[in-house]
Amino acid sequence: MAEYQLYCFAQSGNAYRAALMLNLVGADWEPIYVDFFKGGETRTPKYRTEVNEMGEVPVLVHGAKKLSQSGVILTYLCEHTGQFKPDGEAARLEALRWIIFDNQKVNGFLGPFRFLKNFARPAGDPAVLAFLKGRIDSSLAILDKRLSKAPFMLGDRPTIADISLCAYLYYPAEEFGFDIAAEHKNIAAWLNRIKALPGWAHPYKLMPGYPLPQ
Ligand SMILES: N[C@@H](CCC(=O)N[C@@H](CS)C(=O)NCC(=O)O)C(=O)O
Hints:
4 strands
């Protein structure tokens, strides 16, 4: 058995944060496939009792430890490996500030938008999609401006704040109906810098369940 197990599925950008971190730090890890789409596994009493009471992926298992919330998993992994770790208290708090902003307003809106547009049947209500798109545009502009100042979120080297913010940003533009990289040049350059790190892999390569059965 690998040292780490990650409950995940390929279409989950929230889980991608944890999978990408595991790969970038060179961890010995294996995915445990969660059948979110067909089986509704995260909503089953079994999953909520045995895996995560919050009914979500990602969940990281490390020995006797079982962790959920990607921000917690990223914090745990950077503390355990010393990699992508913000340096000192000010940087640690700054990383946490961006991870919370990301979870709420960047990928926190992108995930539901993509789900409603691309996977939900019937597709989401246009008024809901329009509301989310407005929030997404505003948050991506904030991120793009931040990334005009330095190569990575906290400066010259990548930290867990960068890895968190990647969540949905490498998925195909067709799944959103707009092209994030084409519309935001600083985000595009930053995504390329992260892509160049040893161990980077696309979410559809890193996690099981792609493509979805018809
Ligand atoms: N803030 C959480 C978000 C996790 C999350 O929403 N995961 C989705 C998959 S992308 C999920 O498991 N949803 C299950 C459900 O809604 O039933 C994190 O970053 O870990």
